[in-house]
Amino acid sequence: MPELPEVEVLRRSLEPLIIGDTIARVEVWNASLREPVDRRKLERLTSGRTIRSVRRRAKYLLADLDGGTTLVTHLGMSGRMTLVADGVPRELHEHVAFFLDSGRRLRLRDPRRFGLVLVMGTDELDEDRHFRHLGIEPLGNGFGGRELESLARRRRAPVKSFLMDARVLVGVGNIYASEALYRAGIHPTRSVSRISSVRWQRLADSIRQTLSQAVQEGGTTLNDFADGRGREGMFQVSLATYDREGETCGRCGGTIRRIVQSGRSTYYCPGCQR
DNA sequence: CGGGCGGCCTGGAGGC
DNA sequence: TGCCTCCAGGCCGCCC
To answer: What is the tens place of the pLDDT at every residue in A22-79?
Structure first.
């Protein structure tokens, strides 16, 4: 579910609410997420510690705690993290919760259990197997057409799969890959070996624009997504192609098509994308 | 090695 | 109403 914009929206919403608060205790009702949650370690490395910063890397949310540890969470496909008062009853599929000194709890709900909760030393993040292979942050410095073009050298994958490869760049999932390609006017099946420098530049600009706009609009809520206060996003209204098979393209009046690439749906406009 | 595919889960939608 | 199949925003390991 959540791609870069959703995790960034979540991060921004939580940051002012939880910085300076202290984790009093942790509850793990169901440890079987994508990887088993290590209760002992989680308890040992988080309880009694104050939250000093809230960051994002790729689609991971990172909370740096006192004592040089970082709490890592990933929402998988269906995860939602919200801050509620202690007294609010546990919701369906609420698997893990952090009770804070302020009398609130940060809870993780994740029906499909593709999410992740980990804790590690802050200095271990870069070498950790979840992070070490990750590519460029598309909203950070050092991302542009030139970088994309050089990463594509000696590869021949379809450009849509390339954009979704976390070793290349992070945060772009199935929705934003389709949307960015539409804005750049590039056909999703085009091989990365056959894209000109000008079009790489246009694609990098489109990725940045699409992601930034989605963050501004609070992310895309198709089913589950909400920020830390439970507010849903608005970017689904701005989607030009995603989940719009058969609808009319706003630019050329053609019909949006759906195809399957590497087992995932891709949406595009045959008139606008070459 | 790059790239495609299946599997991990549950729930919602749509067909009959 | 129920039952079945298909599909879903991520990621990883396996295979060719």
So the answer is: 999 999 999 999 999 999 999 999 999 999 999 999 999 999 999 999 999 999 999 9
pLDDT at A12 over 70: yes
Q: Which residue minimizes Cα–C1' distance to B3?
A: A157
- Structural domain contains residue A132: no
User: Is residue A190 left, alpha or beta, with left meaning phi > 0 and alpha meaning psi from -120 to 50?
Assistant: beta
Is A59 among the catalytic positions? yes
Q: Is A273 a member of any domain?
A: no
- Measured between alpha carbons, how far is A221 from A140 in angstroms, rounded to an integer? 24
Under DSSP, is residue A129 helix (H, G, I), strand (E, B) or coil? coil
Tell me the HSE value of A89 on the side-chain side, using a 13 A CA sphere. 2
Classify residue A56: in a domain, yes or no: yes
In this structure, the answer to whether residues A17 and A62 fall within a common structural domain is yes
What is the domain count for chain A? 2
Distance, in Å, from the CA atom of A223 to the CA atom of A115, rounded to the nearest integer, reads 16
| Protein-covered nucleotides on strand B (Cβ within 7 A) | 2-12
Mean pLDDT of chain A: 97
Q: Is A41 in the active site?
A: no
Boundaries of domain holding A249:
145-268
